[in-house]
Design brief:
The complex is a heterodimer.
Chain A: H1 22-43, H2 52-67, H3 74-101, H4 123-136, H5 138-149, H6 154-161, H7 165-183
Helix pairs in contact in A: 1-2, 3-5, 3-6, 4-5, 4-7, 5-6, 5-7, 6-7
Chain B: H1 3-19, H2 22-33, H3 37-52, H4 66-76, E1 90-98, E2 102-109, E3 114-120, H5 127-142, E4 151-156, E5 162-167, E6 172-173, H6 174-180, H7 185-204, E7 207-208, E8 217-219, E9 225-227, E10 234-235, H8 245-251, H9 262-265, H10 272-288, H11 300-309, H12 315-326, H13 340-354, H14 366-377, H15 389-398, H16 409-427, E11 432-436, E12 440-441, H17 448-464, E13 469-470, H18 474-478, H19 487-494, E14 498-506, E15 511-519, E16 525-533, H20 538-552, H21 559-566, H22 573-588, H23 591-607, H24 612-627, H25 633-650, H26 655-669, H27 672-685, H28 690-702, H29 706-719, H30 724-736, H31 740-753, H32 761-771, H33 774-784, H34 789-811, H35 818-828, H36 831-843, H37 865-873
Parallel strand pairs in B: 11-13, 11-14, 12-14
Antiparallel strand pairs in B: 1-2, 2-3, 3-5, 4-5, 6-8, 7-10, 8-9, 14-15, 15-16
The chains are: A mainly alpha, B alpha+beta.
Chain lengths: 190, 878
């Protein structure tokens, strides 16, 4: 049922006696990431790099250890992880951009471990374009989030979104064309 | 061609063109686009972008994927895997279904019988949900029908959570079943009749299902449909044991938009007509393979607009088009077994009658609908008729909104007016709506009153960021502060379903916040909770309240939305407290309070130098100090600009800061393009930020773009229906548009809401002058200012001109008085002096000069070329 409302069940934390809500958990993950990010920056003044993978991973580890959370559904976890990766990366990219403007601290994400080197230079612009895409084609935008930011395969993406592989492939092609045009409108006809 | 279809068409052609080799592609495109140049350009530009860099985004942003993260995490947990709750007497297997609050497991009884067990999910045991759960159990227990899944048992888990046991249904959702079993039209209809039978049976037992959709109707291998999930079902004529029903329904509205009737979307009381409508949607899908409405996004506005206002295409048209567009090559959802010819006429009529927007014009019962289908199957004419001529004519008059067919034209017109009003009221209710009333201050701390207001505003701010919630903002709710009125009265005035009330007690050691949710319909309390914390933990308390309320109201939000809704912009409690105090004084909008606001914002950024919102607040205070002429514009606006730019450096995505900057571009730089660009940027970033709409509306009014200005004011009022400043400025825009009577109405509204906007004396006097109502004008001057002897004498002998001459002489030496004097001279008829005074006002950077283009007082000067020159100097077109 592709058109049916899907209550987005992201995480299903089943905790012992503490009834921690999903909201709190998600906010918690995000806050933890932000806190860690600041820590990383302070510690690594020498090269000013951020290691986003390590960051995401560490945040999850800490949370898992701390709350005794049981992830009930791997797909949910994947979805959240991809969304978080997008946020971490884009937020820091944004910080980098404004720092550059004010001549402050530099944060060359492109040099950080594992980041796509210079391929998509302007992650902030990509993020904005993706948000616009989401307004017209919410599912396609999720596909990009899962594939590009979450690094998931076509098959994994299909499982998270509960659609067929071929749907993901089509969406992925179309979304890339749409985003490429959106970010570089030079190719537009007429 | 409708927009959604075009989007799909573009996509389809794009994919088909990719399949073509280069040689064939351009021919294919030319053919398929058939002269539609825009379509061709759209597809071609997508193809060009696609080809330009085939590797675009192909390499993921991280080396490590979400999957790696997940794997190491799950491993870390010792591979415990999913945790299955324990229910005594049953062995639970895999989870087979899950909704917003409950989960369904496959299970086996000790006797080995295969059953389904439904449980409240971990962490979801709020009182609301438990009550609903209990109701579902009772409803299921009352129903015994071969096409409804049967209730077998119930109880509570060791943790005290309720559960119940149903017969296990193995089958496919009805739409999927029809497709896979390749049913012909007649077979689909017979299957559908069985569903009608079950729903009709439930209705006879006064149960409305309210969530009929394919996933809730499974069809077994033997072709037997089974109705599942009565989780949002309602008992009609509630008996005394179910007093909670109404409150629950309004505060916790769960539905699937594609299948929900217009009445359900508006939150009207449930009726059988809702199920008739959902069955109409179901039949539409069974026959065409697609739902009658498609939403590009799922924003409440779009869903509401489509369902309440949109037009449904007849099933035969849909099938016809699908066939024509793909000529059976791809796996389109439509079954090749349903022919357009079969649908045209009778079946179209049956479906369309079930889908009518007004429940009175649908089938009165499921049974009646079923009867019509049986007639069709036996070759008799159906009872459903296409809309009558009277109706269609009337519809043309009214556009797309619809109403009951009246018998007489007079009655029709009356009804029409009534319905327009009714509909606009209903529009506000399409989302879950909540008003957060001013919290009462119970403490003795120094700033406990401001803290109470700060918590109210903080919760408003946070909950407002959830798109599913509609919340009137500060100005609206604060008009009720200290007034003793019933929740119903307040709720209806604010057009909300639920009120939040609360109180705050703070002293040096502790902070206690009581929060309560009241259902407007019944006036009853539906939820209450007390939060205790250290006084320094205001932020954490707000966050907890936000999360709890969101959950209590049953609003599902994505992580992005949740993060956004609790985002604080500072982690420093003290900075936040100071920021709130700053906003408190800003909201009073009194000159001396702007200075206090600035002080607090300044202290806030001392505590947290990266606190962008506080800089934006500072900018707004300076901006209005300049606008209200309390501070020299050459001082106020540059200070405002500095603060706004600082805020943007810290957070480029802050709508508040773009709005602050827009104000400076508009009122000080007179750079209209830049002002509009910043306003639009702000609105794009956060369409829910009222002040951006409000100020842009006023700005557009000054530019003479009245239609757009009005649209912005209305957007501001949608979010903030009881705001005196918005009404006052809306009135100003109408005054500039020379729509004086309407302007007066808005001023009345602003006065009624009151506070600092009191009588709006000055604005009214301007209006009376332009309307030629000198009696009213004189009375107002008499009452609020009083005539002194000279002015009275001048007015008596020479009318208003005499009065203005006296005033003019009195203002002659005022260095800030350029604009005022110019207005007086224009009234008296001293053209030369008026123009000279205006030139002076421009030099003084009096922001009121920005109204030059639209200000009615200057009408006598407009034909003078020197006036046109002044307009040009300000980049305003005459």
């Amino acid at each position: 049922m592709p058109h049916e409302a899907k209550v987005i069940e992201w995480l299903e934390p089943v905790t012992g006696d503490v009834h921690q809500s999903r909201d709190e958990l998600i906010v918690h993950v995000y806050d933890e990431l932000r806190r860690l990010a600041t820590g990383y920056l302070r510690r690594e003044r020498a090269d000013h790099t951020l290691q986003p993978t390590a960051l995401v991973h560490e945040a999850y580890m800490r949370l898992a250890a701390q709350d005794g959370v049981v992830w009930r559904n791997r797909e949910h976890l994947l979805g959240v992880a991809a969304a978080m990766m997008r946020r971490v990366l884009v937020d820091h990219s944004r910080g980098y951009r404004s720092d550059k403007r004010s001549g402050g601290l530099k944060l060359p994400l492109a040099d950080a471990d594992g980041c796509a080197e210079g391929e998509v230079e302007d992650l902030v612009a990509l993020d904005e374009a993706l948000t616009r895409l989401a307004r017209r084609h919410p599912q396609k935008s999720r596909v990009v989030e899962l594939r590009f930011f979450g690094g998931l395969s076509i098959e994994e993406t299909a499982r998270v979104l509960e659609v067929s592989d071929s749907t993901v492939e089509r969406d992925w092609k179309f979304a890339r064309a749409w985003l490429a045009r959106e970010m570089n409108p030079g190719g537009r006809y007429g | 061609m409708g927009e959604p279809r075009r989007v799909e068409l573009v996509e389809q052609i794009f994919h088909e063109a990719l399949e073509c080799d280069d040689a064939r592609r351009s021919r294919f495109l030319a053919e398929v686009c058939a002269g539609d140049v825009a379509l061709l350009a759209e597809v071609a530009s997508l193809l060009a972008s696609y080809e330009r860099d085939q590797n675009f985004l192909q390499r993921p942003a991280f080396n490590m994927s979400a999957s790696d993260v997940a794997a190491s995490l799950l491993e870390e947990e010792g591979g415990r895997g999913p945790e299955v709750p324990r229910v005594r007497g049953f062995r639970l297997g895999k989870e087979v279904g899950s909704g917003g609050m409950g989960a369904v497991y496959e299970a086996f009884s000790t006797g080995g019988e295969r059953v389904a067990v439904k449980l409240v999910k971990g962490g979801m045991g709020t009182e609301f949900i438990l009550r609903r759960f209990e109701r579902e159990r009772r409803i299921l227990g009352a129903l015994d029908h071969p096409y409804i899944s049967r209730l077998l048992d119930g109880g509570a888990t060791d943790e005290g959570m309720p559960f119940f046991v149903m017969e296990y249904v193995e089958g496919l959702p009805i739409d999927q079943y029809s497709k896979e079993a390749t049913l012909f039209t007649a077979e689909r209809l017979r299957l559908f009749l069985k569903v009608c039978e079950a729903v009709s049976y439930a209705h006879r037992h006064r149960v409305i299902h309210r969530d009929l959709k394919p996933s809730n109707i499974l069809v077994t291998e033997a072709g037997v449909p089974k109705l599942l999930d009565f989780g949002v079902a309602k008992l009609l004529n509630l008996d005394s044991t179910d007093k909670t029903g109404d409150a629950t329904a309004t505060a916790y509205r769960v539905m699937t938009p594609e299948y929900a009737s217009p009445a359900q979307l508006r939150g009207l009381p449930p009726s059988e007509a809702d199920d008739v409508y959902s069955l109409g949607v179901l039949l539409y899908i069974l026959l065409t393979g697609q739902p009658p409405y498609r939403f590009r996004s799922r924003t409440p506005e779009e869903v509401h607009q489509s369902i309440v206002e949109g037009r449904v295409r007849r099933p035969s048209e849909v099938v016809n088009d699908l066939r024509a567009s793909v000529s059976g090559t791809t796996d389109r959802p439509v079954s090749p077994l349903v022919e357009a010819d079969e649908l045209r006429g009778n079946l179209d009529k049956v479906v369309m009658k079930a889908l009518r927007k007004e429940s009175e014009r649908r089938y009165v019962s499921v049974e009646e609908m079923a009867e019509d289908i049986r007639r069709y199957l036996s070759g008799q004419p159906v009872m459903a008729r296409a809309d009558s001529l009277v109706y269609r004519v009337a519809r043309l008059v009214r556009g797309n909104a619809t109403y009951t067919v009246p018998t007489a034209v007079v009655a029709l017109l009356c009804l029409l007016l009534g319905l327009v009003l009714g509909l606009s009221g209903a529009h506000e209710q399409s989302r879950t709506s909540l008003a957060i009333m001013p919290f009462t201050d119970m403490g003795q701390g120094t700033y406990s009153e401001q803290l109470a207001e700060g918590i109210t505003d903080g919760l408003t701010e946070h909950l407002s960021r959830l798109p599913q919630l509609s919340i009137p903002s500060h100005n609206s709710v604060y008009s009720y502060k200290g007034r003793a009125q019933s929740p119903q009265t307040i709720g209806h005035a604010l057009r909300v379903e639920t009120l939040m009330v609360g109180n705050v007690a703070v002293n040096n050691e502790s902070l206690r916040v009581n929060v309560e949710l009241l259902d407007v319909g019944s006036g009853r309390s539906v939820w209450t909770k007390t939060y205790e914390a250290n006084p320094s933990e205001v932020l954490a308390v707000q966050r907890r309240i936000t999360a709890d309320v969101r959950r209590e109201l049953g609003i599902a939000a994505s992580p992005e939305e949740i993060i956004h809704s609790t985002r604080q912009y500072t982690e420093n409690d003290e900075a936040y407290r100071l920021y709130r105090l700053g906003r408190y004084f800003f909201n009073k909008r009194l000159s001396e309070d702007f200075y206090k606001g600035i002080e607090y914002f300044r202290h806030a950024v001392e505590k947290d130098p990266s606190y962008a919102l506080a800089y934006a607040g500072m900018a707004d205070c300076y901006g209005l100090l300049g606008a209200y002429f309390v501070m020299e514009p050459h001082q106020a606006f540059p200070a405002a600009r500095k603060a706004a730019i600082k805020a943007l450096e810290l957070d480029e995505g802050l709508a508040e800061a773009h709005t602050s900057l827009a104000l400076v571009h508009w009122l000080y730089d007179w750079d209209w393009a830049a002002a509009d660009r910043e306003f639009r940027k702000a609105i794009e970033l956060d369409p829910r930020y009222v002040m951006a709409h409000h100020w842009r509306g006023l700005f557009l009014g000054e530019m003479g773009r009245f239609d757009e200005a009005e649209a912005e004011m209305q957007k501001a009022l949608e979010r903030d229906p009881i705001s005196a400043p918005v009404y006052a400025d809306y009135g100003r825009v109408l005054y500039w548009a020379r729509r004086y009577d309407e302007a007066l109405e808005k001023y009345d509204k602003a006065s009624e809401i009151g506070d600092n906007f009191g009588a709006m004396r000055y604005e009214r006097e301007l209006l009376y002058e332009q309307m030629g109502r000198l009696d009213l004008w004189g009375a107002s001057v008499e009452r609020y200012v009083g005539f002194d002897a000279r002015a009275r004498e001048a007015y008596r002998t020479h009318g208003p001109k005499g009065y203005w001459r006296v005033q003019y002489r009195r203002m002659a030496g005022d260095p800030k008085g350029g604009h005022d004097r110019a207005e007086m001279c224009a009234r008296i008829g001293y053209t030369d002096r008026a123009l000279a005074d205006l030139a002076e006002a421009i030099l003084q950077r009096d922001h009121r000069v920005t109204q030059l283009k639209v200000n009615p007082i200057f009408d006598p000067l407009r034909s003078d070329p020197r006036f046109a020159e002044l307009l040009r100097r300000m980049n305003l077109t005459p």
